[in-house]
Amino acid sequence: MKDKMKIAVIASGRGSNFMALVKACRKDGFPAGIALLITDNPDAGALESARKNGIESFVVDCGPGRGSMSAESSSEMRRLCVERGVELVCLAGFMRIVRGDLLDAYGGRMLNIHPALLPSFKGLHGQKQALDYGVRYSGCTVHFVDPGVDTGPIIIQKVVPVMQDDTEESLSERILVEEHKAYPEAVRLYAGGKLKIEGRRVLISYE
Ligand code: GRF
């Protein structure tokens, strides 16, 4: 992984975004490589994928709080990342709000992907919220992580039309296709030094 920015992916579930990043990182000239996968779920599909792809992986018990993580688990994740020289942390379907040492260490160096066009439909089930609200367009957002929930500066959004006969599943599937393009794109920009945060806005350099 010489000359490549080391990234850590943190995921709780199936791990399709993790795999999209794995594939992107294998491409010639991609400026980042995955140093490790961390999960809070011993049954996560992402864990199985990491093992199959020879990527170092760890299960960290984040405690009983649904949606939150213990202070110890946040410290443990920070340690795992710092010890491996990780420069960017990518949350990919991590079902807990990141607080504590991990966020302190990686503030401004942590990304998340959300299955809706933020700032609409934050939190859980973004696709169902969009469908229920009746919007004509939804999509996905890759953004920097700040102490709020899905509130950090936005890097990339991709738009997906909502069809009349969409179900939560069909809409989620079409959004996911765009997620798998958006996340590698955002990581490529970040690792290539192309992003600058100015207040709420993220400026992209195209030179
Ligand atoms: C994705 O829809 C992502 O936007 C959301 O959680 C889901 C994770 O899916 N944060 P996967 O585990 O990457 O397949």
TrEMBL record:
Which reaction is this enzyme known to catalyze?
Answer: N(1)-(5-phospho-beta-D-ribosyl)glycinamide + (6R)-10-formyltetrahydrofolate = N(2)-formyl-N(1)-(5-phospho-beta-D-ribosyl)glycinamide + (6S)-5,6,7,8-tetrahydrofolate + H(+)
Q: Which residues are recorded as binding N(1)-(5-phospho-beta-D-ribosyl)glycinamide? A: 15-17
The UniProt record gives the binding positions of (6R)-10-formyltetrahydrofolate as 66, 95-98, 112
Residues marked Raises pKa of active site His (site): 150
Q: What GO molecular functions are on record for this protein?
A: phosphoribosylglycinamide formyltransferase activity
Coiled coil feature spans: none
Alphabetical keyword list: Purine biosynthesis, Transferase
Superkingdom of the source species: Bacteria
UniProt keyword rRNA processing present = no
Family matches, as PROSITE patterns: PUA
Domain Formyl transferase N-terminal spans what residues? 5-187
Give the pathway listed in the UniProt entry for this protein: Purine metabolism; IMP biosynthesis via de novo pathway; N(2)-formyl-N(1)-(5-phospho-D-ribosyl)glycinamide from N(1)-(5-phospho-D-ribosyl)glycinamide (10-formyl THF route): step 1/1
What the entry lists under PANTHER family is as follows: PHOSPHORIBOSYLGLYCINAMIDE FORMYLTRANSFERASE
- What's its job? Catalyzes the transfer of a formyl group from 10-formyltetrahydrofolate to 5-phospho-ribosyl-glycinamide (GAR), producing 5-phospho-ribosyl-N-formylglycinamide (FGAR) and tetrahydrofolate.
Q: What is this protein called?
A: Phosphoribosylglycinamide formyltransferase
Q: Which organism is it from?
A: Eiseniibacteriota bacterium
